[in-house]
What does this fold into?
Amino acid sequence: MNFELKPLTLVAAAAEKCDALVVLIADGFRPAKDDLSLLIGKAMKSEDFDTAPAKLLSLYQPVQAHATRLVLAGVGVGGARQVRASLLAVLAGLKGVKLKRVVVCFAAPAKEEAVYAIVQAMADGSYVYTTTKSRKEGRTLQKVVVCANNASELQMTFDKAAGVAVGVEFAKEWANRPANFSTPTLLGQAAQDLVKSARSAKFDCQLLGPKEVAKLGMGSFMAVAQGSEQPLRFIVLHYNGAAKSQPPTVLVGKGITFDSGGISIKPAAEMDEMKFDMSGAASVLGVFRSLVQLKPAINVVGLIPACENLLSGKAVKPGDVVTSMSGQTIEILNTDAEGRLVLCDALTYAERFKPQAVVDIATLTGACVVALGGVRSGLFSTRDSLGAALFAAGEASGDLCWRLPLDEEYGEGLKTQFADMANIAGRTGGAISAAKFLERFTSKYPWAHLDIAGTAWKSGAAKGATGRPVGLLVEFLLAQVLSPVSESTYAK
Ligand code: BES
Ligand code: MN
Ligand code: ZN
It folds into this structure.
């Protein structure tokens, strides 16, 4: 799908030929003298339409526009939230209509956050999953033209939004694929193909298999993978958009392509949703897809430990003790707490890049879903400045998160007689004790952790991946272009 920003007024937008013209109308709208404005004014006077968010009025082949369909859409105060809600309602209302070309126009000068939201909502609302359907009736929408009379001042935000949209979609696509279509091997190939598609020496990808990972001493990661017939992959992605001297940001994505729980097996109900347990990995791939398009002047490394968590005669057992790459030993009391076991070795591997910051992204705990639901991801950081930067990126992109604590006391439950630590603590504060486990592997650099268990996918009738938190991460990375990170930025 293609996005274009045009410097057009409402009158000019009405002259565009398209399958649908969507006019976003905010509070305080005052009709001008043109036919379309007068029509809007009339509809408002008769109370058939008002500017409340997601209030819609649809017309077919109106004489006031060249469009086949005209939709007036209220956006209230015209912020990102309202624009998003309104456009998703418009697309839901037009479901089943084979739209190819849509023009979205603001009836007044548009805010940056609104333009960003238009692009996200149009991409999100028109996505159709087809990979494992026999009839490939995917998205019909080919072109979205966004019109604003202040277009020139919006171009940067618009380009960023379009770059984020392709990344979000890439993440959604890979997270949605069933586990037999997104094995560790296939994820590795996706990373390699992505790098090839960039046709740029700034991108690179290395794939490590069981032998290389054993040589690195990643005993914790290997323990999770050992119950599966699928060979594990450790995926290393590089983007060098800046000078070599500039330390990279490292993103680590949990890549459990299916989480059965292992010997500590999960209940059958909704176990299918554990195909989404590689959503952290998908978000790292998504960020790299965005980088291919945006090519900002920064350095980024992506790390993905990918494997299945299954049961077999070879599977790791409760009580088994393993040695992580860091040298610390771990007693695996619950094989379903596997995310932290694959992440900890990736976090140790990250040290070699002397990173300015490491951010891991993981569908880590059901406890985080209980705490924050599906609205905000859980955010943890050992540095306040890094936590603040990620929080701010969430607010700016609408891909929200919320900081949770890392007090020492939360880690006490990880004590055990039989190893340096156990992989689970008590029943309470589960999202935090999981973060406390990871923290033990991050002493060498500024670190943050995003628990996306509640935000990476939706359950129920609308079951599917959300592509989060690609928006947050790209926003966070692009902020580094405007104010480059120095040694003191994320100081303790
Ligand atoms: N992948 C799950 C976390 C999860 C659960 C994500 C539900 C989304 C929805 C993770 O591997 C897991 O099983 N965590 C356990 C940890 C527990 C055994 C300490 C959990 O949250 O129950
Ligand atoms: Mn698990
Ligand atoms: Zn898991």
Q: What stands out?
A: The longest strand covers residues 299-309. The domain at 2-151 is CATH 3.40.220.10 (Leucine Aminopeptidase, subunit E; domain 1). Residues 259, 277, 334, 336-339, 363-367, 369, 424, 430, 453 surround BES (ligand 1) (CB under 6 Å). The two ends are 44 Å apart (CA to CA).
